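CORE FACILITY INTAKE
Project code: CF-77B
Contact: R.S. (postdoc)
Sample description: multi-component assembly, two entities in total
Requested service: structural model of the whole complex
Turnaround: standard
Below are the sequence entries exactly as provided by the requester. Do not edit them.
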Amino acid sequence: MTLFLDALLTGLTLGGMYALVALGLNLQYGVARILNLSYGEMLIAAAVLAYVLFGLQGLSPLVTLVLVLPLAALVGCAMYSLMLTPLVRRAPNRNALEADSLLGTFGLLFIVQGVMLVLVGGGYLSYSFLAEPVDVLGTTLAANRLLALGMAVVLGLAVWLLLTRTRVGTAIRAVSVDPVSAQLAAIDVTRLAMIAFALGTVLAMIAGVLLSMSMTFSATMGMVFTMKALIVIIMGGIGNMAGAVVAALMLGLVESFVATFIDPALTLAASYALFLLVLLLKPAGLFGKASR
Amino acid sequence: MSAHKIFPGVAIVCAFVALGFAPALGNDYTTSLLITLLLYGVLATAWGLFCGPTGYISLATVAFVGVGAYTVAVLGEQLPWPLVLLVAAGLGALLSFLVGLVTLRLSGTYFVIFTFGLTELLRQLVNWYESTISGSVGRFVFVDASSSSFIYGQLLVLLALVLGLGWWLSRSRLGFALRLIGEDEQAARHCGIDTTRAKLIAFTGTSVFMALAGAIVAPRWTYIDPAIAFNTIVSFQVLIMALLGGLSRFWGPLLGVVPLVLLFETLIRHFPNHFSIVLGVVFLLIVYALPRGVLGWVLERRRLPESTR
């Protein structure tokens, strides 16, 4: 029973983190309709930054968390306006844009990954920050995991409020429902796509700093996070924030139960298997209705 | 047949015969380079035959290569070589048929993601199987078919076959159907084309070549583990070579294979740490500067109609 409770709690914290990781990609993909495959690399870049600053200067990751905000917003804006806008302009149709942007973001993925490999090497990295155990319902969790979970909840709420209570948020939702019709309501879709990219990158980098406190990571792990974020948003339905949270918790639970009761070596396989199943059976997401 | 149709045919046959003698003229290094060229030539051409006309981007290339390589590692010592190749081809066909059956109704991005996920899933599963059930992660490949001239010869034949398939596709009903699917799948369906069937045949057919290529080169590695056999970078390399060459003719990918194999070889020898960066830069260069590949660029210069393929 304690084993079960352990797995349940680990799964829920893991799921909370996946929800946080997926939040930004969901915004980017939902609004700009461009799948940013270098998303995980942004996350890892922030994790590496936190690791390096902590190691060299003893800088608290919480400070890095604040430092990273303007940097991430800038990177997101630059990425959309310099890299993706030319592709959007050039594309004769959706399929061409889809292929071009996938290949372009693949290129960015390899460059960012390559730069990190040169800087910190390919080995596993971790550092110890807020690692004290905390008792939760008779089992223990590291404080940094609880912090990440708490931040996930706060950021999730913030994004939800932004989307439902502000003008920009309403416009973002309008674009994610129908980019063409949104223009009829005098919404500048390109500008919003850029905002979504900036916001998405900010969320990715925050997630990266938070994850770096509690998880071992390496410079080549970006794609794993991109894939997990994709699993979550495709399962939850693209642009559907509530669906993504449910999907993230499911993914976290599946992974922790497989690790506890079957074999820890199979967790990644289990998440890919879950993903492939969802793609096959419900490509529009667990709660989605319309397919693309 | 008119003279200008016979001439290219004769030239190609001569080129292949000349290539057949190439290992004898060079040293071990040139032979190994030629083998790499042929390997990627087969993979990129096979990739282009399905992905070029249909526009479906597959990242599962290395999944089939890995299946071929593992067939050799597991069965290589028990069965005669031709039978091993046959089993590798069969397994590649089976896997690609199953994958195709369930995924080819997925569109665009989802297909890319699925094929990437599939490779990772296979690698994880093989890794798990090897480490927990068979006891060690790697396997040694001991087979008779490991001399480099034999491997070279087999790959040359395989390249000739895949180019032959491409030539046939370029003038057959199936190839026409595939191009129509790439233009507009809905319209293709309305024309009475069984699009799923056409895609399935082409996907399976080209994947068999990838599995065979994996099986043929496996003896060169002497040691394989899941990270080597299912190295996702290979899928990306094949993709980028085919794109650089251009997909508007079946032989287009070959134009990208030669420069990029040479580039990647130099990188691995002299700047192994900067491999990813250069790979990324090549990706961006192609997307922004050469979106239709070398072939597309040349054809545009010569103002030849693209649609004749």
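Facility notes:
- Residues 221-292 of chain A form one domain.
- The interface with chain B takes residues 35, 86-87, 90, 95, 98-100, 102-104, 106-115, 117-118, 227, 230, 234, 263, 265-266, 268-269, 272-273, 275-276, 279-280, 283, 292 of chain A (CB under 8 Å).
Invoice: internal transfer
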